[in-house]
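Let us work through a complete example step by step.
Step 1: write down the sequence.
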Amino acid sequence: MLIVGVDLDNTIVRYDAVFRDVALAAGFISPATGSSKHEVRELLRSQPGGEERWQWLQARVYGPHLGEAVPFEGFAAFAELCARLGVPLYVISHKTERAAADPLGVDLRAAARDWLRARFPSAPFAGIFFEDTRAGKLARIAELHCTHFVDDLAEVFLEPGFPEGVERWLFDPSRLQPPVPSAEHAASWAELSGRLERAHRMWRVASALASEPVDSIARVVGGGNNEIYRVRTPSGSFALKCYGVPDERARLEREAASLRFLHAAGVEEVPRVVALDRKSGAALFEWIEGRRPERPGAGEVSQALALVQRLHDLRREPGAAGLSEAAEAGIHPASVFSRIDERLQRLRGAAPELGAFLDEFEGEYVRRRRAVQRHRDVEAALAPQHRTLSPSDFGFHNALVREGRLIFLDFEYFGWDDPVKLVADFVLHPGMVLATADKKEWLAGAERVFVQDADFRARLA
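Step 2: predict the structure and record it as tokens.
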């Protein structure tokens, strides 16, 4: 089940006006100082003795003046959403009992509990925990089996001890925190409410697809056009891929059909399909435990060529005829030109600063296009016997190394294509870097695979 943990200070509690008022009353700042906590802190720290003043100010605001603080807008609705969805909501904060800089010795934890009771009398929290250290806070998140945690500090999510498998939501309404690759930034609680609803739906979808309870779901960094999550269940891990709804290019259907076809034909270098849910636009795949190829070389090129050869051989299999064309296939040269023309037009409209580059590019492109048109009928489709089955977006950027062997991922654009598009896309792909010798090996190997196509080399050029 989903379990959400939330930090307290500057995540639930908004202190901006209180910090400014207390600092102004103490004579630390002038009325011209900005109204945010960040501005007050930076101004104080820039002055002699400013750090001591800042610590004194924190002790006063988090203690005797806490009652003057207000919740961030939208948090109450988020807490109500948790209650409605049956999602336990915990407050987990790094907060000592007393501040060293406070001569009054106010109990900071008691003040925080009183504030929460006053602001949220219906008690929407499953528990409230204050920890002496950040390490204790991280341990509490793990102990409560939180699936998601909300905090306003990037450094919390960057801690080596942050629990694995917990989804990180960085609350950053002022956009002052540095980017954290492993965390999703949010500018408001309304945004987080939307994410919680989506997470709740995904949890139910994952559980239904896996046909068993889900222990955790964690977003995988990357994913390009999709959201990809690691789903952990009692029987193991799966990859949940969310294509979005509507899926205009039918990527879910294409990927599921292609991978099922490949596995039925004995291809083991691709993930297995577990189940799919067309209504939610999601599919569950086997989890590939592996690493990205760091410096792909001759060995990896050889494995990629072996898969290309296998795919080309499978074009004669009975089920191959029912597969669709690859996305943006190059079977008709005229369609390739049409896509380039369309993209040029879009770029000119969206990025006028690229005008000089696009003028230079278009001049060269037009010359190349005319040369092709002089030597071939660009409206004629490539003969079926020379077409191949292509992953389309093929390369080491879409591969993992498992036990020394490459497993190739992302077959959502798979289908029939001109092999020269597959070969050219691979060697020119911006998502990976190949040495010149490896590029030459790829091209030479491709010519061996497609040796029966007498026009292959000319089309490739």
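Step 3: interpret the result. The chain has a mean pLDDT of 91.
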